[in-house]
Amino acid sequence: MDDLTNRVAVITGGASGMGRAFAQRFAEAGMKVVVADVEAPPLEETVKQLSDFGSETIGMVCDVSDHSAVLELKTRTEEAFGPAQVVCLNAGVGAGGTLAETTLSDWKWVVDVNLWGVVHGVDVFLPGLRERNEGHIVFTASVAGHYSFPRLGPYAATKYGVVAIAETLHAELREEASAVGVTCLCPCLLYTSDAADDTPCVDLGGRRI
Predict the structure, then answer these.
(1) Which secondary-structure segment (H or E) carries 126?
(2) Which residues are catalytic?
């Protein structure tokens, strides 16, 4: 897709950090933008900013760990703008601490969002992309999806999984000569702009911390 004008982008975890930066760049390119995030206040602020810029933008509070919520995200997108051409599976969370300190609740939270959130996104959006034979899926993994660091056990485990899903999907789509593209981002610590006051913040693999 060389021309993004009037194309549709969906971004999970889109109200802060890398997700918000994606939304801004897509709006600048003339895309219609759907911002999904579990946090309502920064979501509202991001949608307002993009709308004030002149972008056709909608927002939806969406917990990606809930498959039905991701299905609703697809429905809302298509009702507002038509099918998505770019899907950014960016939502992510992290629980710090050693594995000895990590609780089962910590594991469930991180796995449900980081891994099942991606699985839900692929399950919901990939069939339409393949059927139309167009578009792109962007996975936000992390350098922690290639290297293990102390006190990031659950986070790294899920990001290794995201890398594996992305690489497998890329190979399978190439095998069937599909025009659907796959990108897997594996950032380390980086600075983006905060949705509320435009001050620097740190993003680790898609989660603003």
Answers:
(1) helix 117-132
(2) 155
